[in-house]
Amino acid sequence: MNKIMMTLAISALGLVIGACGKQEEQSVQSPPPAPTAQLEVPAAAAPEPMADALETVVEEAEVMIEEVSEMVDETVESVAEQAEAVKQAVAEQTDQAVEGAVEKAAAVQQAAVAKVQDTAKMGEAVVADATQAAKTTVAQVAEKVTSTAAVTTTALSQEDALNLANRSGCLACHQVDKKVVGPAWADVAARYRGDASVRDKLVAKVSAGGKGNWTDVTGGVPMPPYSPRVADADIEKLVDFILSL
Ligand code: HEC
Q1: CA-nearest residue, atom 40 of ligand 1
Q2: Which are the contacts of 54, defined by CB distance < 8 A and separation ≥ 6?
Q3: Helix (H, G, I), strand (E, B), or coil: what is residue 224?
Q4: Pick from 211, 231, 214: which is nearest to 223 by CA?
Q5: pTM of the entire structure?
Q6: What was the pLDDT predicted at 46?
């Protein structure tokens, strides 16, 4: 809008100046009327209206110049305003971009920290597991050493064991290497080798008697009960001896 008005104003100014120039030209070029008697034109008559016209033109031109300069001022102002707005928008966008980048960097840093912490936790868990496993192994080994020591201290020599078995009446039905009525004790040991829970079961079986575990060997003959005829401690010693074969 301003542009159009300015263009119009400038072209109007051009016209005025052009017209003005022509008039001046005329005034310069047209020779002063010959002072003849016939043409009694008063000498001052011509210049006066010309001067008025010139004055008007100059006034109008001044007004126009003022208007144009105002428009120019306005335009310059609005251009400056627009430039300021653009500058601000760019600055805002830059700020936002910087902010976004900073936020992203912070998020990445946080994620990295979390990962490091997770890894550390996992490491701790692994160490704890390993420690626990090592402790368990040590405890198991210690237990085994203790029980082995116990067995060793209560175990009888083969001769003493066989004497005890004989006194207890076992050898009527058992031998170490041969099936008699009951299974060979070496076969009993071989069947249960590695089964830690079997000792108590066998002690109970010898105490209470029973059948069913060796039917294929014995044809289903039961073993008689030995408690309380044989002391519990002796039954335990006999079972330990049998399992050690
Ligand atoms: C009258 C015969 C007889 C006498 C005496 C006897 N046993 Fe037995 N024994 C058997 C028979 C039969 C079996 C098989 C039982 C079965 O099939 O479960 C057996 C099984 C056993 C077993 C294995 C049990 C199982 O469940 O695998 C042991 C251990 C055993 N005898 C120890 C002894 C001891 C120790 C004595 C002496 C205190 C003894 N026996 C005396 C007949 C006898």
Answers
A1: 170
A2: 20, 23, 24
A3: coil
A4: 211
A5: 0.48
A6: 56
How far is it, in rounded angstroms, from Cα 28 to Cα 147?
143
Q: Give pLDDT, residue 114.
A: 82
Chunked mean pLDDT (size 10), the chain, 245 residues:
54 51 49 53 62 86 86 84 84 82 82 78 77 71 62 74 96 96 97 94 96 95 94 96 95
Domains and CATH numbers, the chain: 2-29+45-101 (no CATH), 155-243 (1.10.760.10)
Whole-number Å distance, alpha carbon 206 to ligand 1 midpoint, is 6
The alpha carbon torsion through 170, 228, 212, 219 (nearest 10 deg) reads: 40
pLDDT reported for residue 31: 53
Q: Which two tokens stand for residue 71?
A: 């428009």
Whether 66 and 28 have beta carbons less than 8 Å apart is answered as no
From ligand 1's centre to the CA of 191, what distance in Å? Answer: 14
Q: Give the closest residue (by CA) to ligand 1 atom 37.
A: 170
Residue 204 CA to ligand 1 centre (angstroms): 11
Question: How far apart (Å, rounded) are the C-alpha atoms in residues 237 and 232?
Answer: 9
Is residue 209 within 8 Å of residue 224, measured between CB atoms? yes
